[in-house]
Amino acid sequence: MSKLPEVSSKLPYSTLYGPPKDVDAEREGDQVVISWSPIPFTEDDFRGYMLELTTCQNGRLVTETMHTNETYYVTIDGQGCNQASSGRLWGVEKHGYTAYVTIEWP
Fold it and tell me: What's the domain count of the chain?
């Protein structure tokens, strides 16, 4: 089995819109619902939202990056990990990404 190298690069940054606001995360058991107020993108600029979540899956932390056009996202975050789960949220528009917001994890 071969291992791919980890690559890190900067996202194209946009100053046309501010970061997401009113970000909230609520837990019910292993389910975490993350919600936020919509960014007032123009229809032409709108490309949705990007989340980077580190959650506990089967006793180990897993980091995933996902896209949504909604103003909420539901994820599963189990128990049994040695470190805390976490998340970040960006707005996405055709010129780049807004500043991110750190999600206060429940």
Answer: 1
Full-model pTM: 0.89
- pLDDT tens digits for range 27-75: 999 999 999 999 999 999 999 999 999 999 999 999 999 999 999 999 9
Locus of tokens 């580190």 = 54
Q: Which amino acid belongs to residue 95?
A: H
**CATH number of the domain bearing residue 28:** 2.60.40.10
Q: What is the DSSP string of 27-76?
A: EETTEEEEEEEPP---TTTEEEEEEEEEEEETTEEEEEEEEESSSEEEEE
